[in-house]
Amino acid sequence: MSEPGGRGAACTEEPSSPGQQGATREGGTSKRPGGERGQQGASEPVLNLSGVAVDYGRRGRRVRALDGVDLSVARGEIVGLVGESGCGKSTLARAAMGLEPLAAGTVTFEGRPVPPLGRRRRPEYLRGLQMVFQDPYESLNPRRKVGELIADGVRLGGGSRQEGLRRAAELLERVGLPATAVDSYPHEFSGGQRQRIAIARTLVTRPSCLIADEPISALDASAQAQIANLLGELVKDADLGLVLVSHDLSVVRQVADRVAVMYLGRIVEIGDTDTVWGSPRHPYTEALVAAIPRADGAGLLPVDLPGDVPDPANPPAGCRFHPRCPLAQDSCRELDQRLVRVAGREIACHIRSASGSVARVQPSG
Prior knowledge:
The chain is of the alpha/beta class.
């Protein structure tokens, strides 16, 4: 099968399903209805991460992939997570699901703890917390029919196989595929369609929160727009919370209510998407926004940040961004930057923060 609407190079699908409404031409995505952004802050978070740290071992050395990350998402809200490769975005997503053990901090879902995945069956309440993985070619068992893959969520919850297949047909139509796809195998579908199947499989448990780890990175431009719009419509219609991990800054800008910018295992800026993108305050966020190509006819290429991301096994003292920062001062090498509320968002930069709230780096053991 080919991706719906695949005829014509860059056209999106006809708006016949929830995720397709509002798609723009040439692979664009549609903004969520006006007035929604920033209104979810008053509701209780469905997912909350507090002081989360994750360590990996490498050649006898400890690598702290995440270091004291705080993040929350409410129902009906999309939180975008962006940053360079290796900054810890996917590790954060996996830690939120309990797929990575925590070195410090806590993760709670609907007020209850998310334990690390072990050999025992996960608590029943965690059926409401689901994940969409990056590669639809790897996340679906090629030897099983699509209907059976989706129906597993019903059977594992105590339902019958027949009930599961009926629910699978309903969800396939909800994500823009025909109900007859229950009798097909994953290899019969395009990449975008496989990701739709993966999304339908997460919806079968009626979740209240989804974590999508780079769900569009393996797709072509038009399919990316379709899947991004589908996720946005599902959040709105089903009142889900969504953490969207992506390196595609333009897609995150279009669909997310809030955005968190990560650098070397920490969040350096977080706030309402329009505020952060319209007037970034952290120098790293400024560099990310400036790196987005603009069709302004000027013919100018974005300016690259100097240097490379430091080794996470040996992060710089003080501000982790100071070796590449154009604003760096001597104090940046000595003061550990923590998030401070500034101009409608939080940033980890004492130069740009009004309060100058920072902490001195403590020498390691």
